[in-house]
Give the backbone structure.
Amino acid sequence: MCNLYRTRASLEEIARLFRAELPDEARAANLSSGIYPGTPGPVVRAIQGKRQLARMTWGFPLRQRSKKTEKPIKPNPVNNARNLVSPFWKSAAANPEWRCLIPVSEFAEAEGRKGQKTRTWFSVSDEPVFAWAGLWRPSAEWGDVYSGVMTEANELIAPVHDRMPVILEPVDHERWLQGTFEDVLALQKPCDPDRMMRDRTHEPWVAGR
């Protein structure tokens, strides 16, 4: 599961790389040095065939109830999508209107013993900003929200975690945004490990949150 990533590019650079419009409301937003579930991040979506850069909250809200009182409590952000044929995800995955590209420079996984976990970062060697396949929708709780699609880990990531983000090659960006549901399922596969880099650090996993 991916719970932390960074985008090392300005909003203007992201818009240029993804050939997307940059509306004023998105232009005014600040990019965080680390994006966590429940916090805002930049997303590229297609509106009437035109790509647009937007700012959304990372995670579909999952409504919760208190075990003691049965009253509604703060929702949990569901920030990773794996089973796209499940009712929770299929309504978004099967409709091109609700698909998006998540611009990412590197993502982190926790590695090490409990209580001593550190951040191991993964990136794509030939793409300073790559596209993580995503889904989005409006919500009553947090406005527009998005989630990243996951798949089984490749050989580089498997020693750290058994899943990884679906990293799209540039030629597949439009297929993800506008293709069929069968296209989406076909693209849900691991990235070639030879295209990726791994950086094991001594950064505590919980630092800076």
User: Anything to note?
Assistant: The chain is about 15% helix and 40% strand. Residues 132 and 143 are 21 Å apart (CA to CA). The radius of gyration is 17 Å. The chain has one domain: 5-105+128-153+161-193.
